[in-house]
Amino acid sequence: MRAPLGDFDDVRPAPDCLELLTEPVAAAVRAWRGGVPAGEILYVDTDPAIADTAVFVEHHGPELLDASANCVIVAGKRGETTTLAACVVRSATRVDVNGVVRRELGSRKVRFAPMDTATGDTGMEYGGITPLGLPDGWPVLVDATVVDLPWVLVGSGRRRGKLLVPGKAFAELPGAVVLEGLGLEAG
Fold first, then answer.
1. Residue 186 burial by CB count (10 A; 0-12/13-18/19+): exposed, middle or buried?
2. Which pLDDT value is given to residue 155?
3. Quick check: is 47 in a domain?
4. Is the pLDDT of residue 187 over 70?
5. YbaK/aminoacyl-tRNA synthetase-associated domain location, by residue (predicted)?
6. Fewer CB within 10 Å, N or C, the chain?
7. CA-CA distance, 150 to 148, in Å (whole number)?
């Protein structure tokens, strides 16, 4: 099977390789009921040693730079209440934590969640966190430009391997809120 973008040696429908995913991600793929069939969510094997964006793109294809997204976990605080949420933005952008995220969560202060919180609460590995399989009730804030992409490369829950997902599927994730301007141009 060939990937719709990028040059990968091992490409499989995610439902056919659940054992390569963390349990929360595998459970999300098993339970998938979106308008995009689960079989269109693809797993591509990747070497964690070349996970740095520049090296990854050089190895797997320059078109991946514009088609990659990051999923970062944030913690919004208002009074004694802390809300954890995921933010999905294109890799070439940064999350507008103090503007869009703060307003959407109704928080006074938002920060990136500590690594042990992000990995512990998601059951995923640092550097591989994905919006598929996040804990129930978490908001999943998705930049509108991600949804508009035909295919998006995101983490698989592990540092080894990535998922290729049709962009429109991100709008169907549990807790998904599509937002304009969530991802700001880096710089």
1. exposed
2. 94
3. yes
4. no
5. 65-169
6. C
7. 7
Q: What is the pLDDT of residue 34?
A: 85
* Nearest residue to 183 (alpha-carbon basis) of 97, 66, 108: 97
- Conformational region of residue 106, where left means phi above 0, alpha means psi within -120 to 50, and beta covers everything else: left
User: Residue 112: inside a domain, yes or no?
Assistant: yes
Cβ proximity of 183 and 143 under 8 Å: yes
- Residue 4 forms part of a structural domain: no
Q: Residue 31 is part of a domain; what is its CATH number?
A: 3.90.960.10
Q: Where in 30-187 does DSSP place strands (E)?
A: 42-44, 69-78, 81-90, 93-95, 109-112, 140-143, 151-155, 162-166, 176-179, 183-185
Which residues, in sequence order, are bridge partners of residue 140?
A: 86, 176
For the chain, the domain total comes to 1
Query: 87-131 pLDDT, tens per residue?
Result: 999 999 999 999 999 999 999 999 999 999 999 999 999 989 999
Residue-wise pLDDT tens digits, 25-37: 999 999 999 899 9
- The pTM of the full predicted model, rounded to 2 decimals, is 0.95
Query: Which residue segment(s) compose the domain that 69 sits in?
Result: 11-185
